[in-house]
Amino acid sequence: MTTRALVITASILAENGQSKGLAEHFIAQAEGRDDLAVTHRDLVAEELPHLGLAELGSWQVAAEERSAEQRELAARSDALIDELRDHDVVVLAVPMYNLGIPSQLKSWFDRVMRAGETFRYTENGPQGLVEGKRAVILAARGGQYAGTEKDTQTPHLKLMLGMMGITEVDTVFAEGLNMGESHREAALKEARQAIDGLVERL
Questions:
Q1: Which pLDDT belongs to residue 188?
Q2: What distances in angstroms separate CA 179 from CA 121, 122, 130, 144, 183, one per listed residue?
Q3: Which residue among 3, 10, 72, 147 is least enclosed by CB atoms within 10 Å?
Q4: Are 23 and 93 in contact (CB under 8 A)?
Q5: Does the structure show a pLDDT above 90 at 105?
Q6: Distance CA 125, CA 137 (A)
Q7: What single string gives the DSSP state of each residue in 21-34?
Q8: What is the dihedral of CA 14, 104, 97, 115, to 10 degrees?
Q9: Which pairing describes strands 134-140 and 89-95: parallel, antiparallel, or unpaired?
Q10: 202 closest CA partner among 129, 131, 136, 128
């Protein structure tokens, strides 16, 4: 049985981005496995616009009643949700920008976190509808933030994934990447080794 991994990248530095490099290492390791297939979505190369009222409104209209414009707008979210559902593992390669996630990645979450599709509201609170999946966060940072109050990024990502029902989340940190060459190389080496171990366990 083949495991399908959806790799999401969102670095504005393209090939020079450290998070993109971690994603590429994951993909390279996965390509050595016959039972692991990878889909790569680059949210910078295929940038999503910020979510607007017209697109949000298109989701509230029954499919058969949508106008041509509403069908086009709703199709954007529908396609991303279908892609998410079609994969077993979601790999998020995430740089840290101003202590948060890139706006490109937020635009992706704004479309896949959709009431009635990937979660629903109940009398006991939100319930995730995306079941049987796991996630991997590949976090690349210039400073050292993991485990501190400045790491608002990791809890935010886990909350959004968890709201959709994805609660099994592994995190690989590559930190201190702007704190000298030797520190950077050691951190990246450790992160690549952690990725190797994750790929072996998928």
A1: 94
A2: 44, 46, 39, 9, 6
A3: 147
A4: yes
A5: yes
A6: 25
A7: HHHHHHHHHHTT-T
A8: -150
A9: parallel
A10: 136
The one-letter amino acid at 24: E
User: CA angle, corner 87, sides to 42 and 49, nearest 5?
Assistant: 35
192-202 confidence digits (pLDDT tens): 999 999 999 88
**Token pair listed for 51:** 């979510």
* Residue spans of alpha helices (H) in the chain: 18-30, 53-58, 68-85, 103-112, 153-163, 181-201
Distance from C-alpha of 120 to C-alpha of 116, rounded to nearest angstrom? 5
User: Per residue in 109-160, pLDDT tens?
Assistant: 999 999 999 999 999 999 999 999 999 999 999 999 999 999 999 999 999 9
Evaluate whether 73 touches 61 at the Cβ level (below 8 Å): no
